[in-house]
Amino acid sequence: MEHVYLDHNATTPVDDSVLEAMLPYLRGRYGNASSRHELGTAARKAVNIAREQVAALVNVQPSQVIFVSGGTEANNMFVRGTAGYLKPTQIAVSAIEHPCVAKPAQDLARQGWKLRKLAVTGDGEVELGDVDEALKEPTGVVSVMLANNETGVIQDVAAVAERVRRAKAWMHTDAVQALGKIPVDFAALNVHAMTLSAHKIYGPKGAGAMVMDKRLQIRPIIHGGGHEQGLRSGTENVPAIVGFGAACELAAGRMPELASRLTAMRERLEGGLHGLGAVIFGEHAPRIPNTSYFAFRGIVGETLVIELDKEGFAVAPGAACSSANPEPSATLIAMGVEAELARGAVRFSLGAANTAQQIDDFLRALSAAVTRLRSMTAVAA
User: Fold this and answer.
1) Quick check: 2 pLDDT over 90?
2) Where would I find the beta strands (DSSP E) of the chain?
3) Within 10 Å of residue 138's Cβ, how many Cβ atoms?
4) In this predicted structure, what is the pLDDT of residue 322?
């Protein structure tokens, strides 16, 4: 059975045009971009073109784009790299950050930094009043993601950045989930650093970028031959970088049309969800157009995901589950959602290939699965 893929916030398929751009650098043009011979020069030229393509999508100069292996490395690079130049003060991150920001921030707290988690509203928006309160203390580093990977809620990063700059701290945003879905403009957001990743925008896994204000001081977390302006050593992954550039160019060309189409499909989905009695998280806040995060009271999200998978639909649970210790989503707990409901969370994230017919088919399968699981619960009771 071929699955209908509805988990695009986890990863996206590589677009055919992106793969076509990459293939020459997996075959005949295999040179090391640091080599001085013709094959190396061709690889360096390809990396430079990709850097220009990435830079164009987020409105920066190519020299501001530092290629890394993905979003996790870029986020660690910012948190650890900036801390390496600063005396320990306070690091402030939103309570809904991805673990690759939250965990290095927790690590700094074990090294003399004070960790401050910025509160969010019931709809998952960072509370600007709490940002103001946090910045009353000396602060070195702040990170607030642009769009949450679970709820899809868009944060007012520019408003946070304005406050952070007044406090003379460094401001970063993880824009991985926003890129390619909404316009992302580095200058308009007023940040010092931004994280991007290729595999969320129909590019390959293994390529990402840290976009930096040229005045930002950052200590490398990977040392070696001095690649990427000395900030990220290691032989460049030329095929993946080329794919990243091609994916950025693809996103720039189709974003308005795609966003409009995905929004219409999400509205169709959420009309059906309301009819089935679902709770939709963050629905009253601005969201990226492809994402819906919901739960049904009395139904465990992991169980519902398994039932939907049997019916040919790939969605994601909203909890970091293990068989021994199922934990509810930290994002939902930060939003004030009770733990039992949070354990029911399911994330639905649309992509370019999805259709309105698939939405209707999904809703029918979901209705049947919810009815089945509720009847099983009733029998067990």
Assistant:
1) no
2) 4-5, 65-68, 90-94, 114-118, 139-143, 170-174, 193-197, 208-212, 279-280, 291-295, 313-314, 316-317, 346-349
3) 13
4) 43
Asked if residue 374 has pLDDT above 80, the reply is yes
CB atoms under 10 Å from CB of 323, counted, come to 6
Residue 89's Cα: distance from chain center in Å? 27
Task: Tell which residue, 64, 193, 88, 216, has the closest CA to residue 140.
Answer: 88
Burial of 325 (0-12, 13-18, 19+ CB in 10 A): exposed
Q: What is 16-250's CATH topology?
A: Aspartate Aminotransferase; domain 2 (3.40.640)
Cα 373–Cα 377–Cα 381 angle in degrees, nearest 5: 170
Q: pLDDT tens digit string along 176-210?
A: 999 999 999 999 999 999 999 999 999 999 999 99
**Measured distance CA(115)–CA(39) in Å, rounded:** 48
Whether 100 is a known active-site residue: answer no
3-state SS class at 257:
helix
Give start and end residues of each alpha helix (H) in 119-169. Answer: 128-134, 157-166
- Which pLDDT score, from 0 to 100, does residue 323 have? 43
**Of the residues 23, 158, 259, 321, which is catalytic?**
321
The total of other beta-carbon atoms located within 10 Å of residue 56's CB is: 14
Spell out the domain ranges in the chain: 4-11+255-380, 16-250
Count the neighbouring beta carbons within 10 Å of the beta carbon of residue 182.
Answer: 17
> Token pair for residue 251?
């996103």
Q: Are 67 and 52 within 8 A, CB to CB?
A: no
User: For the domain 4-11+255-380, what is the CATH superfamily, name and number?
Assistant: Aspartate Aminotransferase, domain 1 (3.90.1150.10)
Q: What is the mean pLDDT of residues 39-46?
A: 93
